[in-house]
Amino acid sequence: MAAADESQGKLRLGALGDSAAAHFLADHRGEGLSIEAIVEGLATRMVEDGVPLMRVSVNLSDYHPEVIGRSYAWIKGQGIEITDRAFTPKRSETYNESPIKIIHDGAGGLRRKLEGPDAVLDFAVTRELREQGATDYVGMALDFSDTTRHFVSWTTDRSGGFSTDEITFFDHVLPLMCMRLELAHARRITEQLLTTYLGNDATRRIMSGGIRRMPGEDIAAVIFYCDLRGFTRLTDTLPPSDVIALLGEYYDAVAGPVRLHGGDVIKMIGDGMIAIFRIRDGVDAGRTAREAVDAAREARAALESLPPERLPDGVDRLAAGFALHVGQVTFGNIGSRDRLDFTVIGPAVNEVSRIEPLTKVLGHSLLVTADFANLSSGIETKSLGIHSLRGVREPREIFTIP
Questions:
Q1: Is residue 291 within 8 Å of residue 263, measured between CB atoms?
Q2: Are strands 320-335 and 366-369 parallel, antiparallel or unpaired?
Q3: Rg (CA), the chain
Q4: Which CATH number does 6-198 carry?
Q5: Between 331 and 307, where is the model more confident?
Q6: In the predicted model, what is the mean pLDDT of residues 295-324?
Q7: How far apart are CA 82 and CA 84, in angstroms?
Q8: Hey, where are the domains in the chain?
Q9: What is the β-pairing status of strands 149-156 and 55-61?
Q10: Which of 129, 249, 310, 376 is deepest in the core (most CB within 10 A)?
Q11: What tens digit of pLDDT does each residue of 55-104 get?
Q12: CATH topology of domain 202-400
């Protein structure tokens, strides 16, 4: 890293108070910006400050089950670009040969000149940037207060690269960057973890302060329930590690279509999954019903198309029963004083869970209730007769979808 002499350092410290970038980072005025908005806002204001930036890239860790890190890159003339680094059990060669690894391993910073005979092009990213006209590349550590270490890089295409004053300016702005980014990152990670474990609606409520026991909210919804066929036999014959792997394939197949069609997965208990498709004000209930049916059909097809090599030895295919109902459910917190759970309860929830076992008896993998069949959805249904349901007072007419 190039370092400024004492007089230059004092000069930049004095100028920091007049910097548009520093003001942006220090005074958020109660505005909760996203990470991408912070990166873009910082880069554009640094350009206002006279720094000849071609690119600014911030790399932060991520807590999504399939993503290990996320890059937020501002590019001159293009705006912000977000790239995810997929999670793999082993670190990729791309990471091992990157400047990010050097920072993660303890270096405070690094610099690579990209023009002239003395250019150092030991990273893929610096070679790519050189081809795009970049002349200088500076990487620095973003050290958060939770002891995690992240990465920011600065790139210019000005002939001669960055000046010593400009690199010193990066050093002075760095603590403000860390504070602002850490707050936004912590909120993003919190929302991401809650969504992963609780679903979209519960996360929204919790982040809005709904963290105490109180009367739940009554909502109209299509209730979606599915259950894996033969799960008891599988748990008796397969080692636990294989059962967990099998459940991962199962839930990928059934939960993905639900989320794709606007549903919210509420619970995954053993091999059973309950989800809701909320019927929102101003939205045709028939349209919501069609989304739920499409989700069930696609989930069924996804299970049927799982290749045997992705399943444990001795398991050729997976199948499930699906049930759909429509009605009022109560969505809210239940539990003890200090251990709560967001869930949906109500007679409609009980009823749909009692209908699904009939898929084995009636020989149809998708069953719906009369209430669902009566929606003006344009979906063709076929009555399978009146049936008694365990724990439900009156027999119910059950339908299937041809």
A1: yes
A2: parallel
A3: 28
A4: 3.30.450.40
A5: 307
A6: 93
A7: 7
A8: 6-198, 202-400
A9: antiparallel
A10: 129
A11: 999 999 876 666 677 899 999 999 999 988 765 554 556 677 789 889 88
A12: Alpha-Beta Plaits (3.30.70)
